[in-house]
Amino acid sequence: MPEKRTGGRSAAVLAQIRTAVEDLVRERGAERVTIPMVAERAGVNPTSIYRRWGDLPTMLNDIATYRLDPTRPLPDTGELRADLVAWAGEIVEHYAKPVNAALLRGGAASAGETESDCLRNRRAEAVVLASRSGAPFAADDIVDLVVAPIIYRVIFLPWTLTDPGLAERCVDRLLATGRAA
Amino acid sequence: MPEKRTGGRSAAVLAQIRTAVEDLVRERGAERVTIPMVAERAGVNPTSIYRRWGDLPTMLNDIATYRLDPTRPLPDTGELRADLVAWAGEIVEHYAKPVNAALLRGGAASAGETESDCLRNRRAEAVVLASRSGAPFAADDIVDLVVAPIIYRVIFLPWTLTDPGLAERCVDRLLATGRAA
């Protein structure tokens, strides 16, 4: 797990590193970015990066979803289907940006040992949504039926993310499964 | 797209390379394998590897599912649910082996430009399954509801692949969604 530090200077350094990573991935593609390159662009010592993240895929995995702010408010219109569609639509929209998709793909190589912050945050949101009144499904169903198909497309079939009905279709399947159970 | 060659010598070389990659990934982890290392272990010139695949993630992406043989017979018992559960179970079992999961994760970094052979083969199988009599769903539904949740777990939550009910749960959701539609 990356070391978490707090405080003004650390936060500013972290923001510089994130910006450098995002710019370099956008310019060169995730597979051609290196830690010394990020350090130079961010104006930090490569050692600081190695100390915090250990290696490049771990850093990409951690930074991949910085911009999908975990503190943003969840949609809450009082209508469950509308909230789920809006939430799924935010995830689709986030990853329809090539830089965010490239970061997720670059980070996937180092996934699988611990749950990434990114996906833990989405799961925490799924827990909240599944606890709303009248929800006929569990948080795990949201992960399998909404998050997984979207992330699968981000990694393997990104050209299908422009399908305008994707978020609705995932949510309608979730609701249909819940009603049938 | 990697160049596809046929013939006895090429096939033998390809088998040596695949074995070398699988052994090295098992020994060192996908993120510590390099093309020169694979070439040395396989007894081939690194140039042959660069010419065929271009870079390491592309090679991993292509080799990741070699062992889930696309010519194996699909389950065909006459009972749709049983066939789907057996098919989904094969995919889970394949990727529950750490080396296969590591190859998939290592290859994910280079995914997203063209559909990998691996996933194209699974989609072709989904098309056959969706065309069987009485199937109340399309091939895309199989990909979203069965393949995507399994592959998502392989990459991000591999410790959940040992859940013995996973294949059945995915298939039952697929059937429930089809009935509700």
TrEMBL record, chains A, B:
DNA-binding region coordinates: 34-53
Organism expressing this protein natively: Dactylosporangium maewongense
InterPro entries for this protein: Homeodomain-like_sf (IPR009057), HTH_TetR (IPR001647), Tet_transcr_reg_TetR-rel_C_sf (IPR036271), TetR_C (IPR011075)
Keywords: DNA-binding, Transcription, Transcription regulation
Chain ranges of the HTH tetR-type domain: 11-71
Pfam families per UniProt: TetR_C_11, TetR_N
Protein name: TetR/AcrR family transcriptional regulator
SUPFAM superfamilies: Homeodomain-like, Tetracyclin repressor-like, C-terminal domain
